Amino acid sequence: MFQSYEDSSNARASAGRINSLRKELVKRGVDGFIVPRADEFQGEYVAAYAERLRWLTGFAGSAGYAIIALQSAAIFVDGRYMLQVREQTDADILTPHHVVDEPASDWIAENFGTTDILAYDPWLLTPQQVAKFQTACKKAGAKLQALASNPIDTIWQDQPAPPAASVISQPTQFAGRTAEEKLKEISGVLKTLDAGAALLTLPDSVAWLFNLRGSDVAHTPIVHAFAIVYQDECAELFIAPEKVTDDIAEALRGVANLRTRSELTEALQALGAAKTRVMIDPAWAPQKAVSVLEEAGAELVKSTDPCVLPKACKNAAELEGARTAHRRDGAAMVRFLAWLEREAPAGRLDEIEAAKKLEAFRAETGELRDISFDTISGAGPHAALPHYRVTTATNRALEPNSIYLVDSGGQYQDGTTDITRTVIVGTPSDEMKDRFTRVLKGMVNLSRIRFPEGTTGGHLDVLARQALWVAGLDFDHGTGHGVGSYLSVHEGPARFSKADATKLQAGMILSNEPGYYKQGHYGIRIENLVIVREAEDIEGGERPMHWLETLTLCPIDRRLIDVELLSDGERAWLDAYHARVLKEIGPEVDGKDLEWLKQATAPLGE
Predict the structure, then answer these.
(1) pTM here?
(2) How far apart are CA 419 and CA 66, in angstroms?
(3) Region 177-198: what's the mean pLDDT?
C-alpha cells in the first residue's frame, strides 16, 4: 500500500524537543527561530528528513510554520488546519494562530524586543517570506538573522537521510516533447528578458524540463535537484550522483552537464563573477541562493519560473495520456463505488478499510505508480474536514443514513488523476439532498461555461458558488487547482479561485470541486478534472470562446440529488455526462459492477 494510516504526530515529545532547540539557540546567540514546513525546494510535499516542523511540534499538516522564542512559542496555520493543529500539538507549549487573522507580525512584536535576534535557515525561506519577517522584526525593533546551518538538524539525533532512489526518464511518448525542445523554449524566454541564465529551484519544473521523474517525496514523482539554464540552450543539473544511473546519464548527454548538489554555490558564484543577469523566481527560490548570487555580483531578473506556464499547458501527447489515465481510473472508481454500495449498508466498513479497497482497485489496473496524495476518506463529521487524513486513531465507521466523502487520485505514467465523490450510506435527509444539489449545480455550471480569451479562474469562480450563495452558504477553499502530467496533483499557475488572476489557456488541466461543510455533521464535495480547450467559434457569435472538456468519468450519486432544484440545462448536462460515463467505462467493467454502473448512470427520474 502507498498510504500509511499510522498517526505520526507526537505532541508528547514536543516539550523536550523544543527545550533542546532553545538550548541550541542560546549556544548560537539568538533569541528565536523560524521553523517552516518547507524544504529547500519549497514543495507541497517534503521528504522525511525535512519534516522538521512535524518532528518538533507534532503538527502533520501540509502548510504552516512555527516560531520558537526562548520563553514562548507559536504555530501559524491557515483555516484548513485550525482544528488539526489543536489536536496534534501541545497547547501548554505551542499557541496556535490563524495565519491571516492573527499574523506572525503581531506575535513577533509581542515576544521580541529591541536587542533580540530572530533566526532562520536561508535555504528554507524565499525572499518574499524573508521580506515579511524582516518587516515584522523591524516593527518590533528586533533583528532577523540567517544561520549557517539549521539548529534542528543538530538536535535531531535520528534524522532520516535524504532520499537516494534513482530517477527515471519520462518517455517522449508521454512527455510529448524532448528535453532539447523544452530547453530551446526556455532559452527563448531568457533572450526576451535579456537574461543570461535562469536558476530553477522547483523540483517539478526540473523534472518537466529534463523529462525525468523520481520518488524523493511521497505521491509526487519529482526529482530533488536544482538546475541552471543558459541562454545558449545549455544547462547544468545539480543532483546527487547516486540518483543518476548510466542510462539516465546517457540520456542527458548533450542536454545537461551533471554536477553534484554541493557544487551549486560555486556555480552561482561563477555567475556573479561574470556579472550575469540571472532570472530567479522570488516566490520559490531559497533566500540562500539569492544571497549568493547578489553577493557575488550577479544582476537579478525577478520573474516567474519560466517552466511553470509551458508545463501547465499540456501538449497533445500529455492530454491524450490524461484521457487514457482517467478512463482507467474511472473504471477503478466504478468498481469501488459498486463494492461500497454492496458492503456499506451492513455497517461493517470503516474509513481505512474503504481507502485500502480503493487503492487496491487502482493497483489492479497494473499501471498504478503511486496514489497522487493521501486519500481523504471521511465518514459523517469527518467529511466536513476538507483536508482530513484518516489514521488508526481517528478511524470511523460508515454509519447508516450518513454521508461518506472520498477524495483520491492515482499517479500513472500517462497522467495524474484527482477525483472526489460524496455518497450516501442509507437514506439522506432533505437538508443533505439540498446541499448536495447546490454543490452539484456549481460543479455543472462551471463545467458548461464558455469564455473568451483573457478570462481568469477568478472570473469563473462565482459560477461554482452561486447556488450556495443564494441559500446563504459557501465553502472556504478554492474551487479548483491545476494538475500536472504524472507530476504534482497541485500545480500552478492557474486555478479556480476568487483571487486568481492567471489567464486560462488551452491545455491547462484544472480541478472543478465546489463543496459544502457542516462542521460536526457532514461534508459534501464533488470533483471532476477539466481541460481548457482551444477557442472555437459559436454560430452567430462575434468572438471565439474557450470551453472545458471534462476528463473525470465516474457516476455522481443520484440518490443525493433533489431533481426539482436542477434547471433543464443542468439536468440535461448531467444525463449526458452519465451517458458518456456508461459508454466509455462500461466496456472496462463487467458482472455486478456493470449492472451497478447502468443503474448509477440512468437518466434522472428513472
Answers:
(1) 0.95
(2) 32
(3) 97
